[in-house]
Design goal:
0% strand
C-alpha cells in the first residue's frame, strides 16, 4: 500500500504544472494580478520589518533606555502576549488593543498574499515571472511616490489614517500620555521614511531580478 501511495505521488509530480492547473480560472486570475500581489507583499514586508525592528525603536523612540521594557512588552503584546497595563491609561489600553487587531490583520494578509503568490512561481512561464517582477517593482516605485507625498502634509495624513482605520476616538490621547511620550510624531515620520526605503530597495531588487530572466519558456527548478 505504501508503495502504491509513493507511486501515485510521483506520478502527480511528473504531471506538468501548467496542465495540472490550466483549467482553474482562479489560478489564471492569480497569475494575471500577480504583480499587484507581489507589490502588496513587498509593502507589507517593509511595514513588518520596521514594526518589529527593536533597533529602530532604540534609535527613534523617545527615551528608549527608560521605556525599553515597556516597548518590548508592547511588541510582544502585538503578537499574542499579555500587556502590562500598569503604566497605561484606560484609553491607551483600548487603543493598543485596536492596534493589535490591525497588526494581526496585517500579518494574516502578509501570509495570505505570500500563499497566493505561490502559483506564480509554481505555474508561471519565465515570461510571466519576468514581467511580474518588473511590473511589481514599477508599482512599488509608484507606491513610494504616493506615500512620499504624504510627508508633505504628514500631520493631516496621519490624522486621516487614524480616522479611517479606527472606529473610535481612543487614538486621541493627551500630550502627557505614555504612548505620546514614547512615540512622538517624529517617530512615525522616521518609520514612514524607513518603510519607503525598504519598498524602494525591494522594488529595485525585483526589477533587476526580472531583467535577468531570459526567454519565454516555462520556468523549471534546477
Amino acid at each position: 500500500m505504501v508503495i502504491n501511495v509513493v507511486a501515485l505521488a510521483l506520478s502527480m509530480v511528473s504531471v506538468p504544472r501548467q496542465a495540472f492547473f490550466s483549467c482553474t480560472p482562479f489560478v489564471s486570475f492569480l497569475l494575471s494580478v500577480s504583480y499587484i500581489l507581489l507589490a502588496v507583499f513587498l509593502l507589507l514586508l517593509s511595514l513588518n520589518l520596521v514594526l518589529f525592528d527593536t533597533q529602530f525603536y532604540a534609535a527613534h523612540a523617545s527615551q528608549y533606555a527608560v521605556h525599553k521594557e515597556t516597548i518590548s512588552n508592547m511588541l510582544l503584546f502585538f503578537v499574542g502576549a499579555d500587556l502590562d497595563t500598569r503604566a497605561y491609561s484606560d484609553r491607551e489600553i483600548v487603543h493598543l488593543s485596536d492596534v493589535r487587531s490591525l497588526i494581526v490583520l496585517d500579518l494574516v494578509l502578509f501570509v495570505l498574499v505570500g500563499c497566493l503568490l505561490l502559483p506564480l512561481f509554481w505555474l508561471g512561464t519565465r515570461k510571466t515571472i519576468k514581467w511580474t517582477l518588473i511590473r511589481s517593482g514599477l508599482l512599488g516605485f509608484v507606491i513610494v511616490g504616493l506615500l512620499g507625498l504624504s510627508l508633505l502634509a504628514f500631520s493631516t495624513v496621519f490624522r486621516w489614517f487614524h480616522e479611517v482605520l479606527f472606529f473610535n476616538d481612543y487614538w486621541l490621547l493627551p500630550a502627557d500620555s505614555l504612548l505620546i511620550q514614547m512615540f512622538p510624531q517624529s517617530f512615525f515620520v522616521a518609520a514612514t521614511l524607513r518603510i519607503l526605503l525598504y519598498i524602494l530597495m525591494f522594488s529595485l531588487f525585483v526589477i533587476i531580478m526580472g531583467l535577468t530572466i531570459p526567454g519565454d519558456t516555462y520556468g523549471k527548478r534546477a
